Every structure is written in structure tokens, then in C-alpha cells.
């Protein structure tokens, strides 16, 4: 907290009932600790049946949603916060809903002129009605291998499988359905996997250094994301200057195209020619000790508490306009 920034009462929302509960709790604690160190009053709350009445009764200055999964990222909670005129950090409800649904985000980004891997969106009902073998044969003929199979909505790489041969595809689709009703099957682009954080506290959006992701297993799985030592990160990413510039420009433009606000993380593959391919956008990037955006904030020479505080102030200003 600075002389010009008043002490705030902040409610950090963490936990919930999604598959990403533990990650959410870790993110929430990290945000809370950073804001406490800045002199703010912070309460960590679960998104339970008493939450909305609690917020109405206590009227905090700010809510920081650190809820991963549908409860925090699909836009529904944000719409309810808007209905109560509560300031909160992050994208507004409509933008969150668009980004949360990966196939929709891919269409919007593609129409804006950015490359994204060819894909097929496969609802569970289609899989059942048309027959698994017929559907998967069609997928294989169109996309070939390797492909990446993932839930159309979700995060933390849960339900994600890299399929190297056609024989692996049925199991991968079933695994994706464990986490949602729709699977996204996407042609795998060979290249360097990077994530680019985008921040905007009111003076204009800017990118953080790209983080290059090199998992020991070859797949950036849930375990590789949240267990120390399972993934090697390079910040900034080992890209040529032109490729790094292209990645940053793409991330900024995609953030704007999807109407995102305050903080986002844009996941890209940089191909052999240095061109970025859009994979997905995260309206609530992980903020744990192994997460990418905090790594990039620190690599940029910024202080986590100051950054989170500035985003909170931006949210409070936005709520009054």
C-alpha cells in the first residue's frame, strides 16, 4: 500500500467444488498473502450458499475471484457480482463466458485473423448418437495424428491427452468427457509452447515476458503444472526477437478481441517459422507458487503485491463507471 492507495477490505474467493479446487486454494492464499503484505484487510471465502448475503452485509471494497473451473471462470459468478454492484478483479461476465468455452474463443480469434489449430468439437451426445467408431474415423481422416484432446471447458490440463496414434483416440475422448460434456480435438502444432500474461491496471494493457514451458514428461499435465521440478520454465522464453515480438502482439490483440480485462494469460505455440498459434485464453490464470503469470511478473522486475494491488484499484475504478 502506498500513500496514495487507501487500505482496502478484500474478499478473496477460493476453493469451490470444481476439479481445480486445490489449485484455487493455493492461488487464493498467494493473492491474500500478497495483499496482506501491502497493508490491506483480506478475508478468504468459499463460494457457498451464504456468500452473496455475506457480501451484501459486509460490503467489501473488492472481491478477488481466485476460483478456477466453471464457478470462477464461466462468467456466472461475475454476473452475480455485477448484479450487486460489487467491484471484482478480472474479466466481465460475457467475456469470461466466451473465453471459457474454448471452441468459441478459437472461432473469435480465428475471425480476427490469428492462426489456431484446426479442430473438431465433439459433444458427448453426438459421440453416442452417431457411434463412436464412425465419429472417430471421421475425426482421424480430417485431423490425422498427433492431436490434442481436451474438455471444451476447463483448465489446469485436466482431461487433456496428447494422442500420437489413432488407436489412442477413443480413450482420450472418454477421458475428456470425464471433465465435461464436450470434447475439443485439435491438431497438434509442433513448436515451442509459451504463455503470455497480459495486465491492465488502467494505463493500457501490456504483456509480461513470455514463459516457455518444457515439461520433463513432454506433456504439460496437471502434475507438471503444480509439482515443483516437473517442468522447466524459461522466462523470458528462448525465442528470436521477431518471434517474441509476434507472440506479445498476438497476446495483446487476442486479449482485446475477447474483451478481457485486468489480467489474462494467452497460451500459444510458436512454430518453426516463429509464427504464434492460439491455443486458449485464461481469464483467471493460476497464481500459485509454480504458476506462469507470477513467474512472469517477477521476471519483469515487478512486485507481486504491488501488481495485485494495482489490479484491485483498477477494478474499483471500473465498478464506479
Automatic annotation (TrEMBL):
<comment type="pathway">
    <text>Cell wall biogenesis; peptidoglycan biosynthesis.</text>
</comment>
<dbReference type="InterPro" id="IPR011761">
    <property type="entry name" value="ATP-grasp"/>
</dbReference>
<keyword id="KW-0479">Metal-binding</keyword>
<keyword id="KW-0464">Manganese</keyword>
<keyword id="KW-0133">Cell shape</keyword>
<feature type="active site">
    <location>
        <position position="291"/>
    </location>
</feature>
<dbReference type="GO" id="GO:0009252">
    <property type="term" value="P:peptidoglycan biosynthetic process"/>
</dbReference>
<dbReference type="GO" id="GO:0008360">
    <property type="term" value="P:regulation of cell shape"/>
</dbReference>
<comment type="function">
    <text>Cell wall formation.</text>
</comment>
<dbReference type="InterPro" id="IPR005905">
    <property type="entry name" value="D_ala_D_ala"/>
</dbReference>
<comment type="similarity">
    <text>Belongs to the D-alanine--D-alanine ligase family.</text>
</comment>
<feature type="binding site">
    <location>
        <position position="280"/>
    </location>
    <ligand>
        <name>Mg(2+) 1</name>
    </ligand>
</feature>
<feature type="active site">
    <location>
        <position position="156"/>
    </location>
</feature>
<keyword id="KW-0460">Magnesium</keyword>
<dbReference type="GO" id="GO:0008716">
    <property type="term" value="F:D-alanine-D-alanine ligase activity"/>
</dbReference>
<keyword id="KW-0963">Cytoplasm</keyword>
<dbReference type="GO" id="GO:0071555">
    <property type="term" value="P:cell wall organization"/>
</dbReference>
<keyword id="KW-0573">Peptidoglycan synthesis</keyword>
<protein>
    <recommendedName>
        <fullName>D-alanine--D-alanine ligase</fullName>
        <ecNumber>6.3.2.4</ecNumber>
    </recommendedName>
</protein>
<feature type="binding site">
    <location>
        <position position="267"/>
    </location>
    <ligand>
        <name>Mg(2+) 1</name>
    </ligand>
</feature>
<dbReference type="InterPro" id="IPR011095">
    <property type="entry name" value="Dala_Dala_lig_C"/>
</dbReference>
<feature type="active site">
    <location>
        <position position="20"/>
    </location>
</feature>
<keyword id="KW-0547">Nucleotide-binding</keyword>
<dbReference type="InterPro" id="IPR013815">
    <property type="entry name" value="ATP_grasp_subdomain_1"/>
</dbReference>
<feature type="binding site">
    <location>
        <position position="282"/>
    </location>
    <ligand>
        <name>Mg(2+) 2</name>
    </ligand>
</feature>
<keyword id="KW-0067">ATP-binding</keyword>
<feature type="binding site">
    <location>
        <position position="280"/>
    </location>
    <ligand>
        <name>Mg(2+) 2</name>
    </ligand>
</feature>
<dbReference type="GO" id="GO:0005524">
    <property type="term" value="F:ATP binding"/>
</dbReference>
<dbReference type="GO" id="GO:0046872">
    <property type="term" value="F:metal ion binding"/>
</dbReference>
<keyword id="KW-0436">Ligase</keyword>
<keyword id="KW-0961">Cell wall biogenesis/degradation</keyword>
<dbReference type="GO" id="GO:0005737">
    <property type="term" value="C:cytoplasm"/>
</dbReference>
<dbReference type="Pfam" id="PF07478">
    <property type="entry name" value="Dala_Dala_lig_C"/>
</dbReference>
<feature type="domain" description="ATP-grasp">
    <location>
        <begin position="106"/>
        <end position="313"/>
    </location>
</feature>
<dbReference type="InterPro" id="IPR016185">
    <property type="entry name" value="PreATP-grasp_dom_sf"/>
</dbReference>
Amino acid at each position: 500500500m502506498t500513500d496514495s492507495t487507501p487500505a482496502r477490505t478484500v474478499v478473496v474467493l477460493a476453493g469451490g467444488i470444481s476439479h481445480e479446487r486445490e489449485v484455487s486454494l493455493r492461488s487464493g492464499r498467494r493473492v491474500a498473502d500478497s495483499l496482506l503484505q501491502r497493508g490491506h484487510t483480506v478475508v478468504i471465502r468459499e463460494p457457498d450458499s451464504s456468500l452473496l448475503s455475506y457480501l451484501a452485509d459486509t460490503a467489501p471494497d473488492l472481491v478477488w475471484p481466485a476460483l478456477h473451473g466453471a464457478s470462477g471462470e464461466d462468467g456466472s459468478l461475475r454476473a452475480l457480482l455485477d448484479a450487486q454492484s460489487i467491484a471484482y478483479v478480472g474479466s466481465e461476465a460475457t467475456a469470461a463466458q466466451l473465453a471459457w468455452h474454448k471452441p468459441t474463443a478459437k472461432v473469435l480469434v480465428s475471425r480476427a485473423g490469428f492462426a489456431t489449430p484446426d479442430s473438431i468439437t465433439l459433444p458427448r451426445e453426438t459421440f453416442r448418437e452417431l457411434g463412436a467408431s464412425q465419429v472417430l474415423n471421421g475425426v482421424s481422416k480430417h485431423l490425422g495424428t498427433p492431436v490434442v484432446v481436451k474438455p471444451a471447458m476447463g483448465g489446469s490440463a485436466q482431461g487433456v491427452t496428447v494422442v500420437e496414434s489413432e488407436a489412442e483416440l477413443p480413450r482420450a475422448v472418454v477421458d475428456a468427457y470425464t471433465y465435461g460434456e464436450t470434447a475439443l480435438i485439435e491438431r497438434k502444432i509442433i513448436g515451442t509452447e509459451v504463455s503470455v500474461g497480459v495486465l491492465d491496471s488502467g494505463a493500457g494493457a501490456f504483456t509480461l515476458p513470455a514463459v516457455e514451458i518444457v515439461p520433463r514428461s513432454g506433456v504439460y499435465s496437471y502434475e507438471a503444472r503444480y509439482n515443483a521440478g516437473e517442468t522447466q520454465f524459461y522466462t523470458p522464453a528462448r525465442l528470436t526477437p521477431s518471434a517474441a515480438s509476434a507472440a506479445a502482439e498476438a497476446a495483446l490483440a487476442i486479449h482485446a478481441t475477447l474483451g478481457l480485462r485486468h489480467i489474462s494469460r494467452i497460451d500459444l505455440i510458436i512454430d518453426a517459422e516463429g509464427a504464434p498459434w492460439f491455443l486458449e485464453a485464461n481469464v483467471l490464470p493460476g497464481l500459485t507458487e509454480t504458476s506462469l503469470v507470477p513467474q512472469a511478473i517477477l521476471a519483469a522486475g515487478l512486485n507481486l503485491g504491488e501488481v495485485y494491488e494495482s489490479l484491485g484499484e483498477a477494478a474499483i475504478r471500473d465498478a464506479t463507471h
